[in-house]
């Protein structure tokens, strides 16, 4: 399953050729991190084939949504789910997420995790609205190497 149609939007598996437009969208929505270079994303997509998706607006051919998703054999991870502001509330976010979670589930993974900044009130509301549970008992730690 590479392409999925809706009336106004085309949903496709993300390829490295989408990187520039996706990174542009992510930079103004979720922000880019040190592992969001073209090479890093290319490597991520190769290791997690068929789990990340983009949404293209048919009329303008513009990339208006993207999600990066993968798994480590135990958990599925959702990163960088974002929809262009002028195309929100069209179920694009939910569709991108469903495509990713279905692909992760087909790989035998039963649980998915998404990290959302506590400062992103809108993002937090979205995850709650679509029925994901906040793991209040966990804190994330990181180190830049
Ligand atoms: C969060 C985001 C991806 C939602 O995309 P979207 O395409 O507008 O969302 P959808 O249209 O698919 O909405 C799906 C459902 O979530 C609800 N929803 C969407 N955004 C919401 C919000 N900010 N607060 C509460 N509910 C929200 C919709 O009402 C809809 O509910 P329904 O199915 O009962 O009708 C988008 O607002 C975005 O890109 N935000 C900036 C980046 C971000 O915060 N990403 C998530 C954190 S990583």
What does this 3D model show about the protein?
This protein has helices at residues 19-29, 38-47, 92-106, 121-129, and strands at residues 3-5, 9-13, 53-57, 62-71, 76-83, 112-114. By secondary structure, the chain is an alpha+beta fold. The chain has one domain: Gcn5-related N-acetyltransferase (GNAT) (Aminopeptidase, 3-Layer(aba) Sandwich), CATH 3.40.630.30. Strands 1-2-3-4-5-6 form a 6-stranded mixed sheet, sandwiched between helices. α3 (92-106) links the parallel β5 (76-83) and β6. The chain is globular and about 45 Å long. The structure holds coenzyme A (COA). Coenzyme A (COA) binds at residues 29-30, 81-83, 88-94, 116, 120, 122-123, 125-126, 129-130.
The CATH homologous superfamily is termed: Gcn5-related N-acetyltransferase (GNAT)
Give the spatial strand order of the biggest sheet.
1-2-3-4-5-6
Query: Could you state the order of secondary-structure elements as H and E?
Result: EEHHEEEHEH
Residue share in β-strands: 15-25%
- What is the CATH architecture annotation? 3-Layer(aba) Sandwich
Summarize the structure.
This protein is an alpha+beta fold and 145 residues long. The chain contains four helices and six strands, in the order ββααβββαβα. The protein has a six-stranded mixed sheet, with helices on both faces.
What's the arrangement of secondary structure elements?
Blueprint: E1 3-5, E2 9-13, H1 19-29, H2 38-47, E3 53-57, E4 62-71, E5 76-83, H3 92-106, E6 112-114, H4 121-129
Parallel strand pairs: 5-6
Antiparallel strand pairs: 1-2, 2-3, 3-4, 4-5
The chain binds coenzyme A (COA).
Residues 29-30, 81-83, 88-94, 116, 120, 122-123, 125-126, 129-130 line the site of coenzyme A.
């Amino acid at each position: 399953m590479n392409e999925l149609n809706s009336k106004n939007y085309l949903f496709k598996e993300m390829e490295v050729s989408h990187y520039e437009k996706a990174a542009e969208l992510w930079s103004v929505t979720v922000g880019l991190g040190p592992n969001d270079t073209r090479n890093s994303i290319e490597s991520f997509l190769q290791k997690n084939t068929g789990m990340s998706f983009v949404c293209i607006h048919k009329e303008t051919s513009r990339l208006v949504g993207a999600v990066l998703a993968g798994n480590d054999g135990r958990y599925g991870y959702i990163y960088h789910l974002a929809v262009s502001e002028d195309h929100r509330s069209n179920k694009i976010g939910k569709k991108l997420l469903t495509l990713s979670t279905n692909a992760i589930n087909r790989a035998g993974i039963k649980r998915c995790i998404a990290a959302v900044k506590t400062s992103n009130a809108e993002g937090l509301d979205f995850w709650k609205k679509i029925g994901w549970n906040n793991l209040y008992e966990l804190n994330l730690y990181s180190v830049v190497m």
